[in-house]
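so ive been stuck on this for like two days lol. basically i have the seq below and the ligand is flavin-adenine dinucleotide, smiles is in there too. i just want the complex predicted, nothing fancy, no docking runs or whatever. if the output looks off dont worry ill sanity check it later, just need somthing to start from for the group meeting slides
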Amino acid sequence: MKEFDYIIIGGGCAGLSLAYELEVNDKLKEKSLAIIETREEYKRDKTWSFWRVFNHNFDDCVIKSWNNFTINTSEGFHELSNKSFPYQSINSEKFYKKINSKLGLNPNVSFFKNINEINSKNSLIFNSVFEGEIDKSKLWQHFQGIEIETPKNIFDDEIVNLMDFNCDQKNDVHFFYTLPFSKNKALIETTWLSNLEDQNLMDYDLQLENYIKNNLGIKSYKINFMEKGAIPLFYPSFKNKNKVINIGSAGGMTRLSTGYTFLNIQEHSKYIAKNIDKIERVKFFNLGKKYQFLDKVFLKVLENYPEKMPMIFFNMFKTSSNTIIKFLSNKSNIFEDLKIISKMPKLIFIKALL
Ligand SMILES: Cc1cc2nc3c(=O)[nH]c(=O)nc-3n(C[C@H](O)[C@H](O)[C@H](O)COP(=O)(O)OP(=O)(O)OC[C@H]3O[C@@H](n4cnc5c(N)ncnc54)[C@H](O)[C@@H]3O)c2cc1C
């Protein structure tokens, strides 16, 4: 069986981002790479959005960028603007196509469906696939989004609505998210922060239908695209294995308080590509102990006081746009952290620390 220098398990966002980073940095000229991916075909399955706090490789896959965003509860509304760090959405189909066509030109890169088809004994492995059963009792961000198209121009396509808490929370945390790609096209998502055991929260079709009709006042539309997912808001437990480096969500690249993962994956891929020849000896890449600690406290508050979360999120956005964006994108300094912390209700956060 054929041997490879590198193996990437899972050719999704992290696997392909890493392969692309290796390819464009000429790390696959004299090394071979096998990508193990089970899917039959690559099509649009996700919309990845984030604040562009640093340059990435996928500007040509961006559907739209925005400089304005809002958050609202039933009691208030808050709008922020930022020209330095636009909010961007990436079309996964364009992303997959761009990377796969680039990799297709390199004879040192091969795709397989199963790792048993190759000899992996001496390879350095990058793994993006979760092991074992999923734990439904833990905290997840679960959601469904639909891209709708309306016959008339309805949306303000200059403003993203990040969180609209003006909806039934059912003793958990629930909001809607609207990304207006144009004046008559938007991705609208119903999002829950809860465990995955309560089926009552999962009638997503109905939630979207009611929100679009009653909150957005849209009577007529067609659905162009649907995406659905559940992002674990806890770190996966992995046994440390020799010559295996976990990447992507499975490698702890999700920011637990928000679910944002895409840009962290890009940063991790750049780090691996830069250090590939000594990757097992360099410092382990993570999102930063500070954010791990702060997010742990935040999620404890979320689990204990779900009813307070709309107000907590709302107040968090009362800082400057630079502060909130940098904090949520793991790029804040200590002064910016303190500004965010000062907006939090002290007593319940102190209780969560005990
Ligand atoms: C619908 C959706 C929308 C999201 N939106 C955002 C967003 O807006 N912003 C953001 O920052 N994050 C977002 N995320 C979170 C995160 O960015 C994505 O989940 C991202 O795809 C994670 O990359 P990954 O490589 O870890 O996992 P994936 O992209 O899921 O890649 C894993 C790959 O492994 C393959 N696979 C599975 N089992 C096996 C196996 N046994 N052997 C080989 N291959 C296997 C899968 O087919 C898949 O291609 C979203 C997640 C989802 C599900």
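Residues 9-15, 36-39, 46-50, 128-129, 227, 229, 231, 248-250, 259-262, 265 surround flavin-adenine dinucleotide (CB under 6 Å). Residues 235 and 251 are 8 Å apart (CA to CA).
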